[in-house]
Design goal:
The chain has a single domain, classed as Ribokinase (UDP-N-acetylmuramoyl-L-alanine:D-glutamate ligase). It has 10 helices and 14 strands. A 10-stranded mixed β-sheet has the order 5-4-1-8-9-10-11-12-13-14, sandwiched between helices. Strands 3-2-6-7 form a 4-stranded mixed β-sheet.
Length: 342
């Protein structure tokens, strides 16, 4: 019987390529056991995009071990296409996750000699070159480890030069980076190549961005990177969207959420934002090509992008672990529980 994890999904319009970690989260339980769950920020993002009906390509290889087969089977089942369907000998990354009283996760990673790091800039670039219809590429989180800079930074530069939209999720993991200054420098280098940056209020603190509050820090960071758009997540306080030309919108849920845990919330938020960005009505100014989605935003468009992203994250936090919502689920929540803007 053919292994379903090694099967490729049928060819269809691929809009997004994601590169970065896929791992197993060992989540601490109240009785002291650790429950293995499929995870990794970029893995979660990839699944979440596919569940929102975005044609998505995952660029990194999976291990041939049991965990690797499970990870590959999950993304294929969600509709993701594997750029490297053949498994590799390297083992699967592990993360030990402890949750605090609010459901917020703390991570410890085991990532030496692992499958998702078995990449090179040339390989990533060549895999994307095979898909000329690609409009957008995403990376971030553990892919921003300075030890992997030679793999990801040249690839991002090549994608920018090819005219694709570059999305970088800072998603810092300071507890596992031995040299924070080198880590910060590499995150900033990646953001310099980005058209869209996603950060959390915690990311801004770890980046030591100047400013009196999270919004001021985000404004400073946006100007420093030159990205066209920056999305800032603020936990229970919602999220903000900032543009390089000074526009900004803020959105939050209109009613309290029953939070189970926040694992994968930021990944689902970004997937919702990217999905809404790629499917937004284009202005009738003749702009064409992938970067047309970065065109001017009016108030309705900015609010629509944020509402879709917030709803995607809200549906995630109401479930145990990262279970990304579908496009129909997100649309239903946007309509049933409108965001408060301001």
């Amino acid at each position: 019987m053919e292994n379903p994890a090694m099967m490729e999904n049928p060819r269809y319009l691929l809009q997004v390529a994601c590169a970065g970690e896929a791992l197993i989260d060992l989540i601490a339980q109240p009785d002291g056991r650790y429950e293995p769950c499929l995870g990794g920020a970029v893995f979660n993002l990839t699944r979440a995009l596919a569940r929102q009906d975005i044609g998505t390509l995952y660029l990194n290889p999976f291990s041939r071990d049991r965990f690797g087969r499970q990870l590959a089977a999950a993304v294929v089942n969600d509709g993701v296409q594997l750029a490297q369907p053949e498994p590799v000998a390297q083992i699967t990354s592990l993360a030990v996750v402890a949750l605090d009283d609010t459901g917020h996760p703390d991570y410890a990673f085991y990532r030496q000699g692992v499958a998702d790091r078995a990449v090179s800039a040339d390989t990533l670039t060549q895999l994307c070159a095979r898909e000329p219809a690609l409009a957008l590429v995403c990376t971030g989180a553990l892919a921003l480890d300075p030890a992997d800079a030679a793999h990801y930074l040249p690839w991002l530069q090549a994608q920018r030069e090819a005219g694709r939209v570059v999305v970088v999720d800072a998603n810092l993991r300071p507890s596992v980076m031995p040299d924070m200054e080198a880590y910060r420098r590499n995150v900033h280098a990646a953001m310099q190549l980005a058209d869209v940056v996603k950060v959390s209020d915690e990311d801004l603190e770890n980046l030591v961005a100047p400013g009196a509050d999270a919004l001021a820090r985000a404004q400073h960071l946006l100007k420093a990177t030159g990205a066209r758009l920056l999305v800032l997540t603020l936990g229970a306080q919602g999220a903000c969207l900032l543009t390089q030309d000074g526009q900004q919108w803020r959105a939050r849920e209109s009613q309290p959420l029953k939070v189970v845990d926040t694992v994968g919330a930021g990944d689902c938020f970004l997937a919702g934002f990217v999905a809404a960005l790629l499917t937004r009505p284009m202005p009738g100014d003749g702009a064409k090509g992938p970067r047309a989605v970065l065109g001017p935003l009016d108030a309705a468009a900015g609010q629509r992008l944020l509402a879709h992203a917030v709803a995607s994250a809200s549906l995630c936090v109401m479930r145990s672990g990262c279970v990304p919502p579908t496009r129909l689920e997100v649309q239903a929540r946007v309509e049933a529980v409108p965001c408060v803007f301001g």
